Amino acid sequence: MSLKVNMFFATGYEEVEALTVVDLLRREGIEIEMVSITGEKVVTSSHGVSVVMDKLFEEIDDSADMIILPGGMPGTLNLKAYKPLQEKILRYVKADKYLAAICAAPTVYGEMGLLEGRKAACYPGMEEGLVGAIKCYDNVVVDGKFITSRGLGTALDFGLKIVEILKDEVAATKLANKIVYQA
């Protein structure tokens, strides 16, 4: 089975959260496209790191198996403000596809009303944006098709959990061992 993931980048994303997940998925042979919502192929992070994206938002369809949103400020605010992304997220919910987010980005789903009654985690101090969610403080929280995580320090856990969900626990464990990760 060929798996495909889209990670959406806005100006001000958190580079470690984003690129750690991209790296882990690519190591596992999971196709992940870095997609710019800015209209430009180069997107600059909250700490001034510019990365060339694989695609522009306008160049993709809804064929991916999962959407991932990296955190960071003002990246998360820019993701929230981009209506075409909100529309895509709603189509993914309707299609029962996976939606993942880390750090401040779970608040995108929360403020859209998508986490109502679901367990979710986010960056400390951002919990108000998890509207209607059961707030959790685990490194990674999975509830149905939603995967949320707390921040840069949990990026490896988040990426490995995504590998486990899209492949299996054996693949995630082998990858963790390969990168000398100790939980």
* Total helical segments: 6
Structural domain count: 1
Derived from helix and strand composition plus strand pairing, the structural class reads alpha/beta
CATH homologous superfamily? Class I glutamine amidotransferase (GATase) domain
**What percent strand?**
15-25%
Order of helices and strands: EHEEEEEHHEHEEEEHH
Runs in which pLDDT lies below 50 for 5 or more consecutive residues are: none
Shape: globular
- Helical content class: 25-40%
Biggest sheet overview? 7 strands, mixed
Class, according to the CATH hierarchy?
A: Alpha Beta
The CATH architecture is: 3-Layer(aba) Sandwich
Task: Determine the N-to-C terminus distance.
Answer: 29 Å
| Largest sheet: spatial strand order | 5-2-1-6-7-11-10
The fold-level CATH name is Rossmann fold
Query: What Rg, in angstroms, do the CA atoms define?
Result: 15 Å
Q: Please, could you describe this protein's structure?
A:
The two termini are 29 Å apart. The longest helix has 13 residues, at 15-27. This protein has helices spanning 15-27, 75-81, 83-94, 106-111, 155-166, 169-178; strands at 4-9, 31-36, 42-44, 50-52, 55-56, 66-69, 98-102, 119-120, 134-135, 140-143, 146-149. It has 183 residues and is of the alpha/beta class. It has six helices and eleven strands. It is 33% helix and 22% strand.
